[in-house]
Amino acid sequence: MYQAPRGTVDILPEEQVYWRYVEQKAAAICSLYGYERIDTPTFENTKLFARGIGDGTDIVEKEMYSFKDKGDNDITLRPEGTASICRAYIEHGMANLPQPVKLYYLTSIFRYERPQAGRLREHHQFGYEAIGDADPVVDTEVIEMAWRFFQSLGLEKLSLLINSIGCKECRPNYLETLRKYYQRHSDNLCKDCRTRLERNTLRLLDCKQSNCRQFVNNAPKSIDYLCEDCGQHFNLLQKYLDKICLPYSVNHKLVRGLDYYTRTVFEIQPELEGGQSTIGGGGRYDNLISELEGKPTPAVGFATGIERIILNLKREGIAAPALYEPSVFIASMGDNARETAVKLSSDLRNAGIGVVQSTGTKSLKAQLRQANNLQMQYAVIIGDEEVASQTVILKDMAGNSQENLPVDCLIDKLKG
RNA sequence: GUGGGUGUGGCCUAGUGGUUAAGGCGUCAGGUUGUGGCCCUGAAGAUCGAGGGUUCAAAUCCCUCCACUCACCCCA
Fold first, then answer.
1. Residues A127, A301: contact at Cβ < 8 Å?
2. What is the ipTM of this complex?
3. Span A328-415: which CATH code?
4. CA A400 to C1' B42, whole Å
5. Nearest-nucleotide field for A80 (CA, C1')
6. Nearest nucleotide, C1' to the C-alpha of A386?
7. Which of A36-45, A63-72, A73-82, A186-195 has the lowest mean pLDDT?
């Protein structure tokens, strides 16, 4: 039997309510904050991601779906959203538009990882980017928007963590201090942390091993090593967040897995434990556009995983609104009645009334059973008698009433 | 990529070496003429995740693979 490739899933009809719900709330919040939708290709030149995300990151090193196409081009299925958006910003000269340019996307993401709950090889992200403005007001907006988005979905048990990891000027100094601190303890670190010490110093702060945690708690904090500009930026951000009463906590252990982040980083996490913790995250990436050969352009963005949102909606028992109102089922008996039913179905749909037509040769009982199972609001019954008198029986499935009425009156009756 | 758990009709579950793998939900059909839901009856639907091995005999024991799942890694 064929099955979907590992780490991929079919999103079945009964799941679709959640997807439509999330997509609709995403579009609504974007409209409210002045973001426009952009769709970029599913694949890009491999270099774009290698340059953008960072060669040393896990994503680039071992998680990309990369291949050569028939023209010998190095191609990669999009492993995150931001790099493509920046490419499009540069390619289409969006620097000439009023800044910041605000874009959002809703798209699938591919990473070759070991699947588990809330983690797939193909998953979907909703993300948005504000490109071309370094003002911490923009950071504030981006964070508030994420928070309100989750609120609008009904998710409540969330917490917001923020941190600043500095910029080109001040981060090297901090990293050096951090490295020195950890080198003193290197004998007591776990295996992973020893490699992190060489390769990805910031991630030392993220280790969950109980033994390493003691070092994390006393580790030098990035916010104590910020340059004047970065410090000012972070102070203003907190001031603005306070002003709009967003509950956040500064977490000096918060670092993000992609190399392009500068200054502000933030994550939103469910308070309920279990599964993958982060539901959404983002931050500022002031060097990415220039790294991708655009003019130096500051930017800040956010992304969230739809599957994880839905996981949390279910966990919190939030029901998505139904997608459609079941309406009219048309049952018929005999060839003449069937002919009338075909015409009537066509006419009702033409009038904008949703119809499910009975097919095959089923008893009336079976047809009504089907109408019932489909949770139809009405059943229209047509037999020889009705054909002869040009009437139909309109049966209210919820109540237990039915009436005989001229076929010409049916549309008005259903609409009224 | 590492380690643990799991895998029985569409869904949930019983069955841990021995006749045709059991039940519930769901689906379909009937319960006298053209009326659903409740109830009753019946039917369809499973080479027990796949392949190999042990055995007179395997859903049950062993191996390999696949998938799911949990923890790690990492991330959304």
1. yes
2. 0.86
3. 3.40.50.800
4. 28
5. B76
6. B34
7. A186-195
Assign a CATH topology to domain A13-170+226-315.
Answer: BirA Bifunctional Protein; domain 2 (3.30.930)
Which nt is closest to the CA of A385, judged by C1'? Answer: B34
Mean pLDDT across chain A:
91
Cα separation, A378 vs A383, in Å, equals 16
- The gap between A258 CA and B50 C1' (Å) is 39
For residue range A126-142, what is the model confidence (pLDDT) as tens digits?
A: 999 999 999 999 999 99
Which residue has the least CA–C1' distance to nucleotide B37?
A372
* Tokens (6 digits) for A228: 């004047």
Distinct helix (H) and strand (E) counts, chain A: 15, 16
CA of A415 to C1' of B69 (A): 50
A129, A220, A256, A333, A364 from A361: Cα distances, Å: 56, 77, 61, 8, 9
Q: Looking at chain A, which residues constitute the CATH 3.30.930.10 domain(s)?
A: 13-170+226-315
Closest-lying nucleotide for A279 based on CA to C1':
B76
What residues does CATH 3.40.50.800 cover in chain A?
328-415
Residue of least CA–C1' distance to B69: A116
